[in-house]
Amino acid sequence: MKVMVLQSIFMVFIIIMVIILSFAESNERKPPNLIIMLMDDMGWGDLGVFGEPNKETPNLDRMASQGTLLTDFYTANPLCSPSRAALLTGRLPIRNGFYTDNAHARNAYTPQEVDGGITSEILFSELLSKAGYYNKIVGKWHLGHQYKYLPLQHGFDEWFGSANCHFGPYDGKSTPDIPVFRNNEMIGRYYQDFKINLKTGESNFTKLLISEAVNFIKNASSSPKPFFLYWTPDSSHAACYASRDFLGKSRRGLYGDAVMELDYGVGQILNTLKELEIENNTFVFFTSDNGAALVSKTSAGSNGPFLCGKQTTFEGGMREPAIVWWPGVVPAGQVSYQPSTVMDLFSIALGLASVETPKDRIIDGIDLLPSWVQGKNIDRPIFYYRGNELMAARYGMYKAHFWCWTNSYDEFKQGIDYCPGMDLKGMTSHEQLNHTSQPILFHLGRDPGEKFQLNSQSDEYKKALQSIMAQVNDHRSTLEPGKPQLNMCDRAVMHWSPPGCEKLDDCLKPPPSKPYKCDWPH
Ligand SMILES: [Ca+2]
User: Fold this and answer.
1) pTM reported for the whole predicted model
2) Which of 144, 255, 288, 464 could connect to 39 by a Cys-Cys bridge, CB 3.0–4.6 Å?
3) Which positions, given as ranges, span the membrane (predicted)?
4) Residue 142 annotated to the active site
């Protein structure tokens, strides 16, 4: 009997040791953590390291010196929602449905009244979650605001932030104020509960987003699960805001104050990784969702040497600041010229998590981490869409414009200008110009500002166009446009009474449902 008890105790001991050892081993083999820091309307030229003359981004500049700077990184669309949908799905908006075909070549996004959102797509947050990652989004979501579209229904374990931009304040009668969520419940609304002073630009919201991110990293680092943090502050989107510590600090005005606070936040996040000694097991990426909104003129960011800004498919609308940081893996102080896109982050995330790429759909992203790390470029096209239209394509150093348009004369006459001080004939037009029979070509190395058109009779033009068209034809041969999600609007679907409103006694009565075609003016 005594022997049997001893045997049992011994067996229990062995089992406990096996569990401890396998746990230690699994911890050792823990896949890398992932942090994507996605800014809102920040331009390529806004970082000191990219040449911004006031040099007010010391943390980002340090991040670049400790990591690799990407000069040729692109978004998938010059507007928030489609860009973010492309990042998380690895697919162009024309495929993932984040576009409209209500009118030709119109940009569209997810305001409160839009009926659509992310539907039949696979988000890498969902795949990472299945692979054992613990995921949090801190900030703006923008893939639809109805319950079924929100982050916790798409692979995220936690969320602090909003489904939309911080537009407002609204009257609560014709339009509700935009709610801020904790997970699946509203915990207040912008302006009412989360203050933004539109006169002074003061708000502590970025401060909250920084502490949410830092606390999440601290908590998640002690878990055996790897984590994914998607940090998406929106203070650099008009109307810009900054907390009291940063107000009036920038030589660039309020926009600069917002950038300085975001830069500080980047520093806080990287320092936290170092303090926790997990920087060698954490892939960190910094970029922006679209080019600087030059429509705001002196209140806008900078797209450096590039033409125009947000809303356009010129380089200023779609080329983004980008830094990859992973001490011990990504070389320090390196520059990568590899043409890359937000959709590549989908493929890189799956690569890091050793998750298989979905086989039932075309993925536009490529796992370019080896190219960035080794400084070797691979050839790949960049497609510049606006709504349902392929406006331009880049291959190698050449870019061809098939369609050129900024916005309508009607809008332009009201002072809405996406290319202030940058009028180029045949390019920055207020009529949609069809150049498909003879595309306009530029060499982006010699002419990053797209000012000097290649002579269409030259051998260089003919050769470059041929190689671009081969890529475009290949792309078109496989293209099955997704069902456009951003066509229909309905004021009844706005956030009148989101989950959690009862606890706050802030449930508003929605109007009767009256679906209509959304009007996208540009
Ligand atoms: Ca944006």
Assistant:
1) 0.94
2) 288
3) 6-24
4) yes
